[in-house]
């Protein structure tokens, strides 16, 4: 191959590996700083949380920690089972010591967009049950204002029969556009763990996320929004230089 294609390839894999390392370091920092013996731990969803569960399992083995894990999705449940960690639920553990989860974007006041993986409703429920909600992310999620990094919009979980009216109300009242999230080969809509659909709302300009979040939640047919306002206590960012910062 010529130099230029080789060069592009190298840079791609290099930046991918850098982001993975950043996710891993953020996840390890969160688990090491916030999980203690006898904790009930909420386990988020996505690719960053995989590293957090790796670290939880390692600490359980090495330090003989006794923890209990509450999943936020089918994926999280599978991760917990794969590592042989004790699995629980909100029936038995409605109060969590800490919940750790990823995010699609984090703004300067720790408002989050979540739901890239479609698990936003359970993620928000579990986060709300936790005394401390800790977020882990790589440097690409760090943003001054929402929408600067994450271009797919705010995920909104809706009851299937209501997706058209909900979509019309949102765009009429708040502008932008909504897209019904489709699955593989666009053969049909993505169906969430709760058997609902996801609308991705590509917003134009929003100044008050707290108000917009509450207004969208009030629309009949909306189950939950991927806006997490005033919930994250701390966000760990894995940086490009291999360090971890938090805010
Ligand atoms: C899933 C989520 C995830 O936490 C979010 O999409 C981040 O995922 P990743 O760690 O793979 O970037 O909200 O609903």
Automatic annotation (TrEMBL):
Q: Which InterPro entries match?
A: NagB/RpiA_transferase-like, Ribose5P_isomerase_typA_subgr, Ribose5P_isomerase_type_A
The protein's annotated pathway: Carbohydrate degradation; pentose phosphate pathway; D-ribose 5-phosphate from D-ribulose 5-phosphate (non-oxidative stage): step 1/1
**SUPFAM superfamilies per the record?**
D-ribose-5-phosphate isomerase (RpiA), lid domain (SSF75445), NagB/RpiA/CoA transferase-like (SSF100950)
Pfam families to which the protein is assigned, alphabetical: Rib_5-P_isom_A
**Annotated family:** Belongs to the ribose 5-phosphate isomerase family.
Please give the GO cellular component terms listed in this UniProt entry: cytoplasm
Residue ranges spanning the membrane: these are none
Q: Which reaction does it catalyse?
A: aldehydo-D-ribose 5-phosphate = D-ribulose 5-phosphate
EC number of this enzyme: 5.3.1.6
Q: Does the keyword Membrane apply?
A: no
From the Swiss-Prot or TrEMBL record, give the protein name: Ribose-5-phosphate isomerase
Which UniProt keywords are present, listed alphabetically? Isomerase
Q: Name one GO molecular function term.
A: ribose-5-phosphate isomerase activity
Q: Which GO terms describe its biological process?
A: D-ribose metabolic process; pentose-phosphate shunt, non-oxidative branch
**At the top level of its lineage, which domain of life is listed?**
Eukaryota
């Amino acid at each position: 191959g010529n130099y230029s294609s080789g060069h592009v390839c190298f840079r791609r894999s290099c930046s991918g590996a850098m982001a993975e390392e950043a996710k891993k370091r953020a996840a390890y920092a969160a688990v090491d700083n916030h999980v203690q013996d006898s904790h009930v731990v909420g386990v988020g969803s996505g690719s960053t949380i995989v590293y957090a569960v790796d670290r939880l399992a390692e600490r359980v083995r090495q330090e003989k920690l006794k923890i209990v894990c509450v999943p936020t999705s089918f994926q999280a449940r599978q991760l917990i089972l794969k590592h042989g960690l004790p699995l629980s639920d909100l029936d038995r553990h409605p109060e969590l010591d800490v919940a750790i989860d990823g995010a699609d974007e984090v703004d300067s006041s720790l408002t989050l967009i979540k739901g890239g993986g479609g698990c936003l409703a359970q993620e928000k429920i579990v986060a709300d049950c936790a005394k401390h909600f800790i977020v882990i992310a790589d440097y690409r999620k760090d943003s001054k204002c929402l929408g600067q990094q994450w271009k797919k919009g705010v995920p909104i979980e809706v009851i299937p029969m209501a997706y058209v009216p909900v979509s019309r109300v949102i765009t009429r009242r708040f502008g932008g556009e909504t897209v019904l999230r489709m699955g593989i080969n666009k053969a049909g809509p993505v169906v969430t763990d709760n058997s609902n659909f996801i609308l991705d709302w590509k917003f134009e300009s929003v100044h008050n996320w707290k108000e917009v979040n509450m207004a969208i939640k009030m629309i009949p047919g909306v189950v939950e929004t991927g806006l997490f306002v005033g919930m994250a206590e701390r966000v760990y960012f894995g940086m490009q230089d291999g360090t971890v910062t938090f805010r």
